[in-house]
Specification:
mainly alpha; 349 residues
Length: 349
């Protein structure tokens, strides 16, 4: 009498696919976690001081986040490609001062001309960054660190110590910084439109999806026929254009301008993107997460003084959030890689 031993059947491939989808959902959960942290921060601060959520405070919170959100959207597009743009603060300052100089020279200039000029300066600066990175093959960190000082130097040389006051701005332009529509500041609507357009593009267009492929593996993307240099150039140019737009919004909100406008904001922008779940190593994340990160950091800056917490802790909290975000990103990446290896082993069985 013989006994036949039947080999165990391998687990179905659908299980592996389900594991991969589950790992991908972790990135969505991370963005939901950021939203939850934001809600908890606002709730705790409002309990401590109910005036934190009155009409004027809500307006100030939205205005405070607007410029950072616009910059974070552009930075997220660049970081997704495994690059970074450290010059956005200098581009903002240059376009903001250019906007003020335009109205000083042409008091009756249409507002749309100011937007076109500011965005145009930003696009030019972004194109310079993109060309040096894509054509000269110089790392983005090195290029944009250099252009940060170059663009700021141009701004200081142009300003020559001059300050532009709100009185030099036309009334219609200044009202952009104070008007609301359905309770939402007009400037915040600009940020919302930018966010929706960028999110739709990255999700719905092939060229947008190719940015993720470049960030995941630039060499493999190049071998698959993706024009890596052109895509990186485009991402840097768009980021510069959005920094130029942020400069115009900055001018509309604050009115008083000098060559120091936007100094140091590039670090907050990178922090917002990383905290928002965009992998600093490229290939994953979304502009929505980056916008949430920007709103969270902006709210932290407004909430901690209300809670009577030393400003030092604001920087410490932001630093801790960055470290936590990077650690979580590495953990999620390792988990996804493990799931993908398991999937390949199942297929090979």
């Amino acid at each position: 009498m013989t006994t036949t031993t039947r080999a165990a059947a391998p687990p179905p491939p659908t299980r592996a696919r389900g594991d991969v989808r589950g790992a991908r959902r972790l990135f969505v959960v991370r963005e939901l976690g950021i939203a939850l942290a934001l809600v908890l921060l606002v709730a705790v601060t409002a309990v401590y001081n109910p005036r934190f959520l009155n009409a004027q405070s809500r307006k100030d919170l939205m205005l405070g986040a607007t410029i950072l959100v616009v910059l974070a959207v552009g930075q997220a597009i660049v970081v997704i490609t495994r690059n970074v743009d450290l010059s956005v603060g200098s581009v903002l300052g240059l376009s903001a001062f250019a906007t003020g100089k335009l109205f000083v020279a042409l008091p009756d200039a249409p507002i749309v001309l100011a937007f076109l000029a500011g965005i145009g300066i930003g696009l030019l600066c972004g194109a310079v960054n993109g060309a040096l990175i894509a054509l000269a093959r110089v790392p983005a960190l090195v290029v944009t660190l250099g252009t940060l000082y170059v663009f700021r130097g141009i701004d200081y040389s142009w300003a020559a110590g001059q300050q532009i006051n709100a009185a030099d701005m036309p009334g219609g332009f200044k009202r952009l910084g104070t008007q609301t529509l359905l309770g939402i500041p007009v400037l915040a609507l600009f940020a919302i439109v930018v966010l929706l357009i960028a999110g739709f593009y990255l999700r719905s267009y092939r060229s947008g999806r190719e940015l993720y492929a470049i960030g995941s593996d630039p060499a493999a993307a190049r071998l698959s026929g993706i024009r890596v240099g052109w895509r990186v150039f485009t991402a840097m140019t768009v980021c510069g254009g959005l920094a130029g737009l942020a400069g115009v919004l900055y001018a509309a909100r604050f009115g008083t301008l000098d060559a120091a406008a936007g100094t140091g904001i590039e670090l907050n922008v990178v922090a917002a993107v990383v905290v928002g779940g965009v992998a600093i190593f490229g290939g994953s994340g979304s502009v929505y997460g980056a916008a949430l990160g920007a709103v969270l950091l902006s709210t932290i800056g407004s909430a901690l003084p209300v809670l009577r917490i030393d400003p030092f802790w604001q920087q410490a909290v932001v630093g801790a959030l960055i470290l936590a975000a990077i650690g979580l990103d590495r953990a999620l990446t390792a988990r996804i890689a493990s799931r993908l290896r398991g999937r390949r082993e199942v297929r090979g069985a």
